[in-house]
Amino acid sequence: MSFPWANEYKPSNPLMRYLDEKLPLPRFVYNAVGAGYPVPRNLNYFWNFGVLAGVALMVQIVTGVVLAMHFAAESTVAFSSVEHIMRDVNAGWFLRYAHANGASMFFIVVYIHIFRGLFYGSYKPPREMVWHLGLVIFLLMMATAFMGYVLPWGQMSFWGAKVITGLFGAIPLVGEPIQTWLLGGFAPDNAALNRFFSLHFLLPFVILGVIILHVWALHIPGSSNPTGVEVKSEQDTVPFHPYYTAKDGVGVAAFFLLFALLVFFGPNFLGEPDNYIPANPLATPANIVPEWYFWPFYAILRAFTVDFLFIPAKLLGVLAMFAAILLLFFLPWLDTSAVRSGHYRPLFRKFFWFGLIPTIAILGYCGGSHATDGIVLVSQFAAAYYFAHFLIILPIISRVETTKPLPTSITEAVLGTAPGATLQPAE
Amino acid sequence: MIRIGAFLVGLFFSGWLLISAAMGAFAFVTSPTAPTAEHEFHKTPKAVEYSFDGPAGKFDRAQLQRGLQIFREVCSACHSLKYVSFRDFKALGYNDGQVKTIAQTWPTETPSINPETGEAATRKPTPADKVPSPYPNEVAARAANNNALPPDLSLMAKARHGGPAYIYSLLTGYQAPPAELKEKFPASMPGKTTHYNPYFANLNLAMPAPLTTEGQVTYGEGAPKPTVDQMAKDVSAFLTWTAEPKLENRKRAGTAAVIFLLIFLGLCVGAYKNVWADKKAHA
Asked: What pTM does this model have?
C-alpha cells in the first residue's frame, strides 16, 4: 500500500506517541487522509466529490439520529409526529428539512462522483474493486433513501412503497409471496412502516462500513487522476494533508452553501406536495412519482409497454431497471481501452457528452413527468440508447478508437512545456 | 464471453424498446388517445403576490389576523385545522389574553370527559388545545357533506402544486361551466352536489363557493375592503402560515447561514491558495 516516499507518522507529542504504541489509530488516520497519503498533484475539483459524499452521509446520520428521537414509527401517528417535529420540537423544522434535502444533496454529490468515475475511467484496473464497492454503496443508498421516504407516511410515501414493493410482485410464481413477506402484509401498513424505520436506521451504518472498504481498496493503488497516467515518481504527488484537505475545504464550503440555499429558501422545491397529505389507501394520487434521484430508473421501468412472448412488460421493465444499475458492475470488462481518461479518447468523449449525459437527463425528465404517450415514446428511445451505450457502443469504441498520445508523466501534464503553466490540468 | 453476453443483453433491451416505441407510435397514429376534459379545461393557478414571497419575505400580521377571522367565520364550519394550537396564534400578533379569548369563543368545543360521570362531553378550548374539528369523526363529516370529506386545512398550502396561489385561485375560480364543456364532455358537467371550478384537479368539487359576496366577513377598522378577492388572498396567506409557521425563522436563519458560509468559503479559498502557493510557483 502507498508509495515508498510517503511521509511516515512521527508523533512528537508524548501522548500521541503513547497512543500510537498502544493502538496506532492516529497513524491509521495519518496514512489514510493525512500527510502520509501521497496523492497525484493534478486532481481537479471533480475529485472533491468523494469527500463531499462522506460529509453528506455524516449530515444524514447526525440529523437522522436526532429526528429518530422525536419520530413515532406507527402508522396512525407517524404523519402527525412529523408535524410535531415541524412545529413543536426546537429547530425541528431545520432538522427535518436538512435531512430531507440532505438526501438530495447526497445523491447530487454521488451522481457527480459516479460520472467523474465514468469519464476518467476510474473503474479500470487496478481500481475495479473500488468501483464495485462504490456501486454497492450506491445500491444501499437507494434502498435507504426509498425507506426513509416512506416514514412520514404521506400519500407519496404509501403509494411509493406500494409501487416499489410491487416490483417484486412482478417476479413469476414467487413474486406475490415475496411482496407480502417484504411488507409484512398485503399492502403497506404498520408492519411495513416499522421494518422500514428499523432498516432505515441500520443501513447508513452499513454504508459507513462499505465506505471504509471503498477507501481501503482505493489506498492500495492510490487515487487516479485526470490524465489517467499512473504515478511514477515523488514529483507526481503531494501529501493529502495539507494540499487536498485545503482543496476539499473549498468543496465543503461550496457544498454547504448550496445546501443552505435549499434548506432555508426552497425546502420543498425538490419534494412532492402530495406527501403533505396523510397516507390514504383508498385514494390513489393522480401521478405517483418517486423522488428526483430515482427518475431515470423510473423512466426505464415505465418504458417497457409491450410483452415479449411469455414475459409480461412489467417484468421486463423491472429486469431492465435493475439491469441498468447492475450493468455498471461489468464496466471494467466492457471498456477494454488501455487509456483511462476520457481526455485522450476523442470518440469515447463524444459519446459521453453527446450521448450518455443527455440521455440520462432526458430519462430523468421523463421519469418525473406524467406518463403520457409522448413521454413514454421519448423514454423508450432514451432507454434504448442507455443500454446500447454501455453494452454495445462502449466495447466497440474501445476497439476502434485511436487515442491521443498520453503525457509521459503527471508532472509533465501539469507543468507542460510552457513556463508559467498553472497546476490545474487542462480543462 | 462477458462482452458477447453484454452485447446480446444490450441488443435485446434496446431492440425491444425500439420495437415497443414503433408499436406505440403506430397505435398513437392509428388510434390517438382522446383528450380528457381535465386536459382541456383545467387551469394552472393564477399569479398572486404575497408579502412572504422571496428570500426576505415576511408575513403581514394584519393579513394573517384577517385570514384567521375568515377561517373562523367561514371555513371552520366544515374544515378542521388539527395541527395548529391556539397558543400558536400568538405568532399572529395577539397577546396571551386575546389568545385565551379566541380559544374560549371558538365556534366548536374540545372533546373531553365529564369528570362526574365519565361520559363523553365537550368543554371550552384553552390556549394549549389544538383547534377543535367541526365534526366528531369522519363519518359525521361525510354525513353532513353529501358523503364528501372536507380535508384538514393545516397543511393545504404545502399539499397542492402552487400552494397559496392554488387556494386563492380555487376560492375565486368558481364559475358556470362553459358551454363547450357540455358539448364535448357532458360526463364532466357538475352534478347535483358538485360545483364547477377549473382550478380543481377534476373540474368539479363538492364544496360550494365559500366566499360569495363582498362584506361576507366584517373586517375591523383600517382593513381593506372585504371583497371576495381580498378575502381569498387573506385566507390563503393565513393557510400558508398554518402550513409553514416557521417560515420567518427559516428565512432569517438562512440569511445568517448564507452570509456565514460565504465568509467561510472565502477563507477556504484563501487557505487553499496559500497552501498550494509553493506548488504553483514551481510551474
From this structure: 0.95
